[in-house]
Amino acid sequence: MSHTSHMLRLLPESAVQPTGPVDHPDWNYRPLLGRVQRLRFRMVLDLLGGDRFDRILEIGYGSGVFQPELARWCRELHGIDAHPLTEQVAGRLATHGVTTTLTRGSAESLPYDSGSFDCVVAVSTLEYVESIETACREIDRILVPGGALVVVTPGASALWSPVLAVATRQGSSQYGDRRQQLQPALHRHFPLDREVRVPRLGGNVLRLYTGLRFRAGGTAA
After folding, report:
1. What distance in Å separates the CA atoms of residue 72 and residue 56, rounded to the nearest whole number?
2. In whole angstroms, what is the distance from residue 189 CA to residue 60 CA?
3. Are 145 and 217 in contact (CB under 8 A)?
4. CB 173 within 8 A of CB 188
5. Tens digit of pLDDT per residue, the chain (221 long)?
6. E strands of the chain, at which residues?
């Protein structure tokens, strides 16, 4: 199934609410900005490659916008986020037919047994984690050997940073230098299976998003 033609199943705009100062769920429904935002979700579908999983964990589910789509690709869906609105988001998802188990917590200390998931998805979230190295070790621990880690991360170029600054009124201060740290750390911990870029041409200067699919339980090159 092509990620460009697939109709995304997102939580309706009327059901979403911001869960923190860096959560902007309404962006997904704006005419132009929404198209850019939804590119991240289509990149995830591209990287999933039509695979179905037993258990998926979304790290940084926020207002639950992407959970309805992820539910299509697994038998059992989970989400973890640091914000305190777990019950509210779960209730809104349930109202729209999405069964999921949401937990409050951190990627640096995941409250799951080792080998609990065969897929972890993180869309523009790992850049906020204070210790990316610790998060990588935790993600590797909770994935089954050979499990998939799918990450979409925004560009860290001199062109993209001012756009973030205008859009979020916070800019790169919300990340520190973690956007630059993230991909090298991921490559140290996980073998890479696939990479997609938006746009595909133009190099790092024009890069909006990079999507990466890694494999757990191996030795990164």
Report:
1. 10
2. 20
3. yes
4. no
5. 344 557 899 999 999 988 888 888 888 888 877 788 889 999 999 999 999 999 999 999 999 999 999 999 999 999 999 999 999 999 999 999 999 999 999 999 999 999 999 999 999 999 999 999 999 999 999 999 999 999 999 876 555 555 555 554 444 455 556 777 899 999 999 999 999 998 776 656 566 899 999 999 865 54
6. 53-59, 74-81, 101-104, 117-123, 143-154, 192-198, 209-215
User: Token pair of 188, please?
Assistant: 């140290």
Q: How many CA within 13 A on the CB side of residue 21?
A: 7
Question: 209 forms bridges with which residues in the sheet?
Answer: 154, 198
Tokens of 124: 């523009």
C-alpha span between 100 and 70 (Å, rounded): 10
Q: Give residue for tokens 């200390």.
A: 109
Tokens of 187: 């490559």
Cα-to-chain-centroid distance, residue 85: 18
List the structure tokens of 78.
């989970």
**Max CA separation in the chain (angstroms):** 45
Beta bridge partners of 80: 59, 103
Q: Which residues contact 135 (CB under 8 A, 6 or more apart)?
A: 107, 108, 126, 129
Tell whether the torsion through CA atoms of 140, 211, 73 and 85 is positive or negative. Answer: positive
